[in-house]
Amino acid sequence: MIDFLEQNQLFIVLTLVLLIWFGILIYLRTIENKIVKLEQALKKQKGNN
Amino acid sequence: MKIIKYLSSLIITLVIISGIAPPIVEFPMHWYQYPIIPGLEDKFRNIFFHVPTAWVSTIAFLVSTYYSFKYLTSKNDLYDIKAESSASIGLLFSLLATVTGALWAKFNWGSFWNWDPRQVSIVFLLIIYFAYFLLRSSIKNEISKNNISAVYNIIAGISSIFFTFILPRMLTGLHPGAKGGKDLGPILGGSISGNIMVTFFVSLLGFTLFYLWLLNLRTRTGILMKELKYD
Amino acid sequence: MKSFFTLLYKDLLCEFRTKHAIYSLLVFVLTTVLVLLFSILDKDFSVELISSLFWIVSFFSTMTGLSRSFVLEEEKHTIMFLRLQSSVTNIYLSKLFYTIIGSLIINISITIAFSLFLSGFIIYNYTLFALTILIGSIALSSAATILSAIISRAEFKGLLFPLLSFPIMLPILITSVQLTNITLTNFTFENELNYLQFQLSYSTVLITSSLMFVKYIFEE
After folding, report:
1. What is the reported pTM?
2. What CATH architecture does domain B2-230 belong to?
3. Are the Cβ atoms of B167 and C174 closer than 8 angstroms?
4. Which of B1, B9, C119, C137 is the 20 to 30 Å CA partner of C72?
């Protein structure tokens, strides 16, 4: 186990960094979807008034 | 905006892979091998992440100053929102640059904090823009808040130019390009292999596009907040 | 132009009557020098320590005494009358010159006090020292005046003022300390002109941008 970790240091770091980066991306996408929904709701509200 | 979004996600993913995965060998034979840089070895991979974050923070602060100037000349509230959003992203990225720099400093210079001019100046940039948000929150009148924070932002932008571009080159320090240091560093000195250069500049591009996406998101939330509060 | 001199005269007269800045300066200089003398009794102080102390004292006495100019006007609600009497640019210029004069007086008094009490404070290069003090005062005042105008419109003035002014003034303080180091040692250096140029350009940019944008601060 320790041998495996030592031999593949770079790839372990790489997978971890990629995981974090994809987490950030997914988080940003959800935020963007929420913003789009809010913008549409606001538009509808303005149209009704 | 959609293109920027997908392009920046793709480019940064590629940069992460091509920054970390390629092996470092003494005599590179193939295009996917990086040469050894004496004194840096594996640690130089950080250049693909540390420098772009510092770059984005500088860009964000300058853009924020530009929008403050636009606000004062046009009195359009949108520019005020953009200036605030850009400053907040700049604050985030200068924090990231400080952290990545401190980690790099630990393994290259021996300790997390070395009182290098650039380390000191980025902390003072953090304080300057932290004070900007404090100033914004401490003025109640909406119009004078926007005006005064725009004036302060212009002053802050001027001193950020002096902090990032002039002061670190006048004082002795550990970063490449400081006073007394002969080498300009691996990038500006031009003594580096082509594949590292390509990855580095692609990384700069990717982070800049990512900044544009973040700025777009922040501006839209700012507009939403403003409209919900006053309608 | 006439209103500028009237405003400057009024500021100097007010200061002469209350003597706030002079008292705070005296307290700062005396406490620093006395604490130093008592804490390290008979050792010589290094040049770096003395020059940084010089600018620390100068910074704090400028901050507490002089740069409250705009804040005081706002607190006494007299800024309205000033604006009726003349333009914002004129008010700014008079405050700037008032701060420069005060800061020069402060720095000269610190020089006198230091050379009386501290044996390590020997000036070798008199012209450079005079230039350092002159340009340093101008640069510090150019930052302090516009920040004072900004702060006068905000709440929590006591907290915000040091937080806003310290990072903006830090480049000036660093270069001033370096210049003072050079004047206090007998060696010749080649880059003292760089520091002077740096301070001059910094204060020029600050003053021009303040002149351009100070009118927006008092706009409602």
Report:
1. 0.89
2. Up-down Bundle (1.20)
3. yes
4. C137
